[in-house]
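Late entry, written up from scratch paper. The run itself happened at the end of the previous shift, but nothing got recorded in the book at the time, so transcribing now.
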Amino acid sequence: MNQTSHSIPVVVNWHLTEACNFSCRYCYAHWERAESVKDLIREEYQVRALVTELGRFFRSDGAAKKFGFYGADPRLNIAGGEPLLVPSAVYTAIHHARRLGLRASLITNGAFLTEELCKSLAPGLDMLGVSIDSRESDTNNLIGRVDSHGQLLNLDSLSSSFEVLRRCNPALAVKLNTVVNRLNWKDDLSSVVDLIQPEKWKILRALPVVDQSTSVTDVQFQAFVARHSAYRSIAVVEDNQDMQESYIMVDPQGRFFQNSPCSVGYQYSEPILEVGAERAFSQVAFNCSRFASRYSGSAGGTS
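Output as recorded:
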């Protein structure tokens, strides 16, 4: 890919943990695991080492020339599972990234966003995303967005958390993620968007390879998008093909992984800390054009 007139920000999504307090039926955060290998978050020095190696590679001239990554500093996006189940690892990763000159962001289901945690994390974040698929209790129960004690996400409490985050870091961008599936495609999330007031709203289609029973048809997916056309200025819509081989993703054991249209499950690289990021990244498929198209006209990126 040749350098273009607009910058293409690098966003590296590190899924810290598979653990989650919710059990969403279409969750893709399940990886093949080597029993003898511990997740990197078990050792703080490994968290720092991975962030350092990712930063070194994706800020290098070689990566820029090979993949067309130009412009803004790379962003480390912390995800899960639910990353705030391991807040110390999240804090270490985010603040080490900032010390290295990287940007940082976090994706959470919002259940653990206490005021104290918001105050701790906000200064180090460029963006915080929250995943909400429905405002209806029955729908969230059917989806699995409920913990083992039957507790659902409290949206009013979440709204208060975002007030704290924005007060502590006025430059922080808020993003809403919604997975459109068989259980929520008829929902109207206008009240949720108005409550959260995100700078971006990513609308994704449930991947059929995870749970066929949650899939939606083209007509159903487009009906959901059309119902929320009033938010088109902040909406980023991703159909299944848009997600294939277009994310830079790292699993809890420190391997690049990739979803592929040609197989069920994931492709995995060798461990990044064993072979280096450059070699490991070359071992998984990656579609530069599809990746770049997600960021066209968007300086902040959407991942």
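The two ends are 20 Å apart (CA to CA).
(Scratch paper discarded after transcription.)
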